[in-house]
Model the fold of this input.
Amino acid sequence: MTAAPELGDIEAARRRLDGVARVTPVYGSETLSRAVGREVQLKGENLQRTGSFKIRGAYNRISTLDERERAAGVVAASAGNHGQAVAWAAREVGARARIFMPQDAPMAKVDATRHYGADIELTGPAIEEALDAARAYVESDGATFVHPFEDPRVIAGQGTIGLELADQVPNIETAIIPIGGGGLASGIALALRAAKPGVRIVGVQAEGTLPGGSGYTIADGIAVKKPGDLTMSILDRVLDDLVSVSDEEISEAIVVLLERTKLVVEGAGAVGVAALLAGKVGGTGCAVPVLSGGNIDATLLISVMRHGLAVAGRYLVLRTRVPDRPGELAKLLTLLARERVNVVEVEHQREAAGLPVAETGVELTLVTRDPAHCDEIMATMAQLGYPAERLT
Done:
């Protein structure tokens, strides 16, 4: 097995990345600190170039290619963020890049990868098929394969985040790191173990990717069936704990981060905050979730926000019926206005099955204050003769 990087390798990566990768900020969050009863600092890798931590490892690997290797180009397999990083890093050093991506990769990530100058090939439904296709291409073409996590220089590049954390958060007690293939967690953990041996390191996976899971998760950036052999050999000795979070918990974290910290974070980047909010991270001192990326697809973000608001009781969709004659819908909307409800969508359903001939169905989307307000609206409608079915 390839040897794991050491502290010297991570420090060398930091020198290579000086002026290339951003030293991303750390933000304290009073909202999250109150919610979990401990200090919370957020490491904003969602604000890194290309929108994720991945350029650290990609550039550290690609910048060390010799002239012949650069001329032959680079190849990668990626669900999005690694592909963007490899494309960007290849462009910076003057090499061509070909990226193999799952056919259902978010279009925002596919388009961004193409924007950085890479040739794109869409493969099967999962990252594993993209990896197989990339390796086959390398065999026939002679380009250099840049693995997303099973590469010591990639791991060392990601480890520079750990060195930054040691400098930026002197009182860090617990680092909370997303785990897909394990490159990010391996690199950060190796750096922190050297710089701050007493720090607790907690890895977070998405439940959908675990054995027995659905195989799907909104955290597509960590949708890997298992870490690699190299990264697993590192994680086995450096992790203090490994937890998992559901898509429901990830969704809540995305909404909280957007609304309360004004940070746009993708599913993979939100898993650390999700684990904190769900009470799955031990310790009592300063906790630092790594927000690993911010490249969330706009359509997914809309769905997540709507779902999150519905769970929080601030978004109510209901179905009712009114007499099919002039003025009845206006009467219902006047009632809702008195309840201080903002009506954002109204849909008539005159042909719905089971409706009496003299009535029309109405589906309403409402912005509300909280769960109690939703209950009040439902009760008031029932009292005034509007039988309502709650859809969210």
Q: What stands out?
A: The mean pLDDT is 92. The first helix runs from residue 7 to 17. The CA atoms of residues 50 and 199 lie 29 Å apart.
